Amino acid sequence: MPTISEKGQLMPQSPIRKLVPYAEQAVKNGKSIYYLNIGQPDIKTPKVALQAIKNSNIDVLAYSRSEGSEVYRQKISAYYKKHDINVNHDDIIVTTGGSEALLFAFGSIMDVDDEIIIPEPFYANYNGFSTASGVKVVPVISKIEDNFALPPIEAFEKLITSKTKAILICNPGNPTGYLYSKEEIQKLAAIVKKHDLFLIADEVYREFAYDGNTHYSIMQEAGLDDNAIMIDSVSKRYSMCGARIGCLVSKNKSLIQTALKFAQARLSPPTLAQIASEAALDTPQSYFDDVIEEYVDRRNILINELQKIEGVKVAKPKGAFYCIVELPVKNSDDFAQWLLEHFDVDGETVMVAPAGGFYSTPGVGLNQIRIAYVLKKESLVKAVNIIKEALKVYTD
Ligand SMILES: Cc1ncc(COP(=O)(O)O)c(C=O)c1O
Question: For FRET with 18, which of 73, 75, 237, 284 sits at 20 to 30 Å CA-CA?
Answer without folding.
Answer: 237
